[in-house]
Specification:
With 406 residues, this protein is of the alpha/beta class. The protein contains 13 helices and 15 strands. The chain has a 5-stranded parallel beta sheet, with helices on both faces. A 4-stranded parallel beta sheet has the order 8-7-9-10, with helices on both faces. Helix 2 crosses helix 12. The longest helix is centred in the N-terminal third of the chain and has 28 residues. It is globular.
Length: 406
């Protein structure tokens, strides 16, 4: 009897020990850095909700709306997304201030879709020194592919130099005797485009480019710059302006009767945010590049991915403009992030988040153009590196040519 009792006690003790070990093992599998818990993933973001680049603010709002959908569905692996998105007015000093607040006071796990080239560059050194991921920067600067010096920073969209290469090759093939005028923003964003054009033009660049005029990111207008460019006699115009200034410049060129072949930077191709304010009839014939499905294009209307996006807009972001491709952008970038977080599982350390973000294999997003997928590796920090030329016909962007791999 005593022997039986001892055996039962031993078995009970063994069971308790095993239960402790199992529980301890389960707990050990969960790894967290600041910003992550059993119930929450806290994310930081800076966005120009004010100032000359405020048209981009809808990207942050659409991402917040997408995370609301995810949270209503139970979150990611049981954790709700808490996006803290702060206004920086596209001012680099303000960006640094807001970034430090998000990391040091709000204790976010990482930064997501910080918008702007000069602003994101201003915060990059601090974030890399702190080993805080700067994920999917909302800018096409080549700076985000520098994995050797800034391994904690990665972009999302095709880079500006690659985009410029495509325009330059088109010009050489179809307008070899072109006289080219360039409008650009006086920062790394604008200079990336100029470098890309000159890369392809080579020793012909100085002959082809007859006028180059810049503007500052918070100038009130660029109308005088357009008049100057028109006076150069240029037959081709590269319009490297951000949305507010792109709308102004397209309208001004039309109003003064200047009608060169115009190339428009992809960041200003939104029908709702740029071309409608400029006047659709004034944008006819403009060439740009695409990688996302334009929400005004009727060919996508019956696709399930587009219908899902339209239903989401109606329910979660009803005040958003369904003609604005930036809302397709925000939805798609947020979808990319949710994929990464799902891959992280219960290992929500900054190191593992960065690992998963740089090991994406041929991810298909519903609103990427056919033939374009998203992929990364530890030595490939350009998630979307393919694009396609498109021309505006007065109502929609019309794709032409083949998908061009970056």
């Amino acid at each position: 009897m005593v022997r039986y009792m001892q055996s039962a006690a031993a078995r009970a003790s063994l069971a308790a020990a095993l239960a402790f070990l199992v529980a301890g093992g389960a707990a050990a599998q969960k790894k967290y850095d600041p910003g992550a818990t059993d119930t929450e993933i806290k994310i930081g973001q800076t966005m120009p909700y004010s100032g000359g680049a405020s048209a981009y603010g809808t990207i942050g709002r659409s991402e917040a709306a997408y995370f609301k959908l995810i949270n209503e569905q139970g979150g990611v692996n049981g954790r709700k997304i808490n996006l803290i998105s702060l206004d920086d007015g596209l001012s680099p000093p303000k960006t640094v201030e807001q970034t430090r607040r998000l990391v040091e006071q709000d204790n976010v796990l990482f930064m997501f879709q910080m918008l702007g080239t000069p602003t994101s560059i201003a915060a990059r050194k601090y974030l890399n020194a702190a080993k805080v991921p700067q994920l999917f920067v909302a800018s096409g600067a080549t700076a985000w592919t520098d994995y050797e010096h800034y391994p904690w920073t990665i972009g999302w969209q095709p880079n500006y130099q690659t985009e410029a290469h495509v325009y330059a090759r088109y010009i050489l093939e179809h307008k070899p005797d072109a006289k080219i005028a360039i409008l650009y923003q006086n920062d790394d964003f604008g200079k990336d485009y100029i470098k890309g054009l000159r890369d392809v033009f080579g020793d012909k660049a100085d002959k082809l480019i007859v006028a180059t005029v810049s503007y500052e990111a918070n100038d009130p207008t660029v109308e005088s710059q357009v008049v100057t460019l028109a006076g150069s006699g240029a037959t081709v115009w590269f319009n490297g302006a951000t949305p507010k200034y792109a709308a102004q410049s397209i309208r001004k060129a039309y109003d003064i009767g200047w009608k060169p072949l115009q190339f428009l930077t992809s960041v200003s191709e939104s029908v709702g945010a740029v071309l409608q304010p400029a006047g659709l009839e004034k944008a006819v014939g403009i060439i740009s590049i695409g990688y996302l499905k334009d929400p005004t294009d009727p060919q996508w209307q019956n696709e399930q991915g587009f219908k899902d996006w339209a239903a989401w807009m109606k329910k979660y972001y009803p005040e958003g403009n369904t003609a604005d491709i930036y809302n397709v952008w925000g939805y798609s970038a947020a979808t990319t992030l949710i994929y990464v977080l799902k891959q992280c599982g219960d290992n929500l350390t900054r190191e593992n988040v960065m690992h998963e973000a740089t090991n994406i294999k041929e991810l298909k997003l519903p609103l990427l153009l056919p033939g374009i997928t998203l992929g990364t590796s530890p030595t490939h920090y350009a998630p979307i590196s393919s694009l396609q030329l498109q021309r505006f016909d007065g109502k929609n962007w019309v794709l032409f040519g083949d998908v061009i791999g970056g």
